[in-house]
Amino acid sequence: MQHLRSILKSGLGVLLAVVVASGAALTSILMRLTKRGGVQNFQSIFWNQVAHMIFVLRLTIAVRPKLRRESWKETAVLVVGGILRVAAVVCLCLSYLHVNVQGNTSSVVYGLGPVLTIGLAALITKERPTVVQVVGMIICIGGVTMVGVSMNSKETNNQTVQQQVVTLLYPISASALLTLCWVLLRWLSKRGVPLVTHMFYYSIGGILLLPLAYIVEKPVWSFSPDTWGLLVAQTLACAMQYLSNAAAIHNETAATVQIVKVLTVPLVFVLGFFVLEMVPNVLEICGGIIVT
After folding, report:
1. pLDDT digits (tens, 9 = 90+) for 111-150
2. Distance separating alpha carbons of residues 203 and 243, to the nearest angstrom
């Protein structure tokens, strides 16, 4: 009975990771569409975080976890994780909005994800990688390198060197910060910190994005009905992705979840081609296939 329960728990973690991949692909495409409708960068990110907060606060009220029962070390990790997640979300969303081919962002973020997760999980949560995971890590590095070279060569004609570096740094920074956040979440889960507590701390940092939107940009709040509809769909997809990701890592190892999330790459390439008419070149497709 215990063995069956363990199998079902692992299966649930993998299923949730597939939902995360689908949500990430939808979010990246919808953010491009809402940007075309006039929604600005940090304004779009703010709405995503509002959706997270609404879902998490409703869940927190329903479950009523004891937010003060954690040790000082666990509380510090929760706070730091929440701050890191805000920075990670900003980098990820800016990647969605500014990297020309949507699949390139996903190839870098989700290609580096397993590589970084295996290393950080071994150091922080003491989850040792298997031989298969190490081989997959090496393959992912090759695929990400191909995509990075392709991104750099494609942008050379119309971007300065500084802009090219920033374009590459957005997805790389997003991958590193997100990986650290989820490995810390896994560490907290193994110490018995409730899932709702993770979600609460990881979502409240989103309130920082509204003043940031006004400092960096001048957001406009009047949009067409079509843009509002796309914005609602975007926030729901983003919230689904976040909640599923947190639940998946609570039930399965961080490395396994990151490996399954690589499915985001082919989904984004396909959606980007049919919805946004973004055509990747051969090197980008090959890199995405290798990462997957």
Report:
1. 677 778 777 878 887 777 777 767 766 776 666 666 656 6
2. 10
